[in-house]
Amino acid sequence: MFVTLNASTKAAEKQVSQPFRSVLREPLPEESLSYKVDSVGIHLKGPVFEYLVDPNTGCITNLEVRRDDEKVIQLSEPVDLILDDYRLSAKQNSGETVLEFKSQHQVILKTTGLLKPQANNSSAIPYTLQSTFFDDGVVVSKVTLQPKQDLVIHRNVSSRLSAKGKFHSYLHKRRDQHGMGSQSGSLPPTGKALPLTTLTSCLEVFSPEAALALFTDSGATHLSKAGLPTAVINITQNDGVTADVVLEQNIINISEGAKPYLMKAGEELTFRTGLSLAPNRVPHPRNSGLRMFTWAGDQKHPYPTHQEILDAARLGFTLFQMHRPGTPGKPRPPAGEMKRVIQQVHDAGMLFIWCTMADMMYESSEGVQQMREQNQWKLWQGFNYGGHYQPHMDPYCNMTATCLSSPNGLAEYRLKTISEMLDKFAVDGIYVDDNLAYPSCPLHQEHQHPHPVYDSLIELHDMSWRRRKLMMEKCPHVVLIDHCTTAMVLPVMSAFDMHLYGEGYGSPSLENYWNFFGITKSLNGQGCLWPGDDENTRTSAAIVYNYDLLTGGGQYSYLDWRLYPKKFPYAKGVADEESLYIRTYSTAQANFGIYESQPYIFAESEKLFSTSTPQTYATIYRNRTWNDYLIPIANMSSQAQTTSLEIHQPEAIKLKQDQNYLVFDVNQHTSKTASGADVSSALSNLEIPGGSLRLLYLRPVSDSHPMHLWGGKRLSESWDAAQKSLRFEIDGPPGLQETIYIANCRQPALKVLVNGQPAAFALDASQGIAFGTVTFTETPLQIEVITETEKGSCLPLEKIKPDQLFLHQHQK
Ligand SMILES: [Zn+2]
After folding, report:
1. Would you say which domain of life the source belongs to (predicted)?
2. Does domain 31-278 have CATH number 3.40.50.720?
3. Cα of 448 from ligand 1 centre, angstroms
4. Does the fold of domain 605-702 match that of domain 31-278?
5. Residue 442 C-alpha to ligand 1 middle, in angstroms?
6. In this structure, which residues have their CB less than 5 angstroms from ion ligand 1?
7. Short-list 205, 191, 210, CA closest to 248
8. What confidence tens digit (pLDDT) does each residue in 322-374 have?
9. d(CA 70, CA 166)
10. For residues 509 and 506, what is the distance between their CA atoms, to the nearest angstrom?
11. Cα-to-centroid distance, 441 and ligand 1 (Å)
12. What's the CATH architecture for 605-702?
């Protein structure tokens, strides 16, 4: 059992929701690594995975990864190192493993042994293997071969990972590129192999359920000729959901008959190889509710005003990132503004995120200045962006490139600034910009890179993991966000909770989008779609919400440059209606409580439900606390289309046959009632604008008394039969005005009180829905509906109007 019961899941039984602002601050589930030795071997157990190591060889002989109670990855053979006829896993090898280091989060094992050949015609090869296991599932092994006699390698030196798991796609990152545009696609069919010939860094297989990667810092160190495979994926079985895969990366590869590779006696061959896996931790309940707003500002307006912070919260955002805040802990001038901003972000119910870059630092930072003064700059120097970056609208951001490996004390300096930041400011997380394994560092000797061309993948993970541990210690609810763009490289993303991708570039087809970016779900992470700033190409907000709501929600982020284009005229292609889409769909997700819900994603639910028209798609979210549903039905065609949603297996999505449901159109504000057996009837012949969606909400109705239907996040609700009054509690961003809809209002003799005060509500008699506008505050609103009132207290009759987005879409 790996699911940790937290307050929000416990509340499910009582139909009480926690306000999201407190869910945001629930500590992260436990992340640790336990170490145990028994007669079977050395067990290293993380939150959802367990490694088994053979102490005789240091070989990883087993690995299991679980998602909830289901095993999603299982090794089929030991993780092997192969040198012609030698195998690390071979029984005849002899050696000894000692525990070099152990903490609650990391274990280092060191094996000293002899690789022995199958037949006794060759000599044994002394080796050491130092394996570092991290609590995020990553393991990095440093292999050193020390032959006592000349060793002639005729075929190859390689690492091999054989596993069965929920994989349908692959990605291959090169050591000489940063990872965007990595070769990727569907796994080959049963019995087929996929050889790769580019300079291999990381080879991974994945699906939204699970992922597994094999990586090395020394891929293709020696090939007998160009064009030989550097890596290969062999598929022994693939049914489209589960695959048996063998991943191999070659350190040395020699074609048949070519000149062998000679290792002289006394020479060493050293390389590092590693694994990364997903899921690697227990999901946090806040995940899909994490919606990020970015404040980039400019030199004139580096800090947001109070009103601008409130604007972001009222658009439905829950994370507020300052993109150019200065070195961690040393806010940019006027530095006194930082405490105000953080306090106001918190008061508005959001978390505050400080942005840093994976390899750039402020020129003004103490560490950079010191290294320059001491003439030691080369030890940290990097070369991205030509070594220097300074945006024209914000010269304070005079950034200098440092090496991605964070060598020679740079990692420690970076961590020190974060530690100081957390001592001084109530920062809730970090966004790491450009978190890509770049290969561009010509100072490989000064920085101890293993090869002149190296992507620092292993050190990048190490730095990210150390940052995570440091921040979790000081901020148990920390949110760590990486900017991975289209480089979905598992060990690079492993130590993060959110992954920002997209950049407003044209998106692939929906299925490909889900198959590719779905890897964030395998990590139990939250995706984050960047709307684009000064790039020329982008996807419209309407279409992005099709992607967002069909693939889990909460992903579309936004930024000040787009929200205030007059004040910050730097973003391209800002459309007037963007904020209308954001407010509408973010609020809908917040109101429904998408963080409490189970999604049934379109691509994986064809047997459960389907739409009737090509290019239309639906995903269904079921709220676990309230047993209600949110259903986006999207039209990917640019033309308006009519479609129906047919639910084939209502019981599979927990719709009850004998239960009545009120089906409410979130934008049009119309309602229908349908039985669970026949919900499809209320979901038929839906007209959907081109490139947009319809959003339907289903709530079970069992009694004839009034009930809260829509508007605000419902936290609790109770009907007092004796008093004939309904009480419910709703929450929303402070200052946001929203219309509240109350169903089952059969007669106008009603009184609605908001925080005890009579409120101006009206009744749409044709729908039996009372409605009125409320303004949210920093604490939830108490609403009371009294159905038997003294004479003369009747709601005025009025027809409900559609929302602004609906009117906007239908005004043409
Ligand atoms: Zn370097």
Report:
1. Bacteria
2. no
3. 7
4. no
5. 7
6. 403, 441, 443, 447
7. 205
8. 999 999 999 999 999 999 999 999 999 999 999 999 999 999 999 999 999 99
9. 11
10. 10
11. 5
12. Sandwich (2.60)
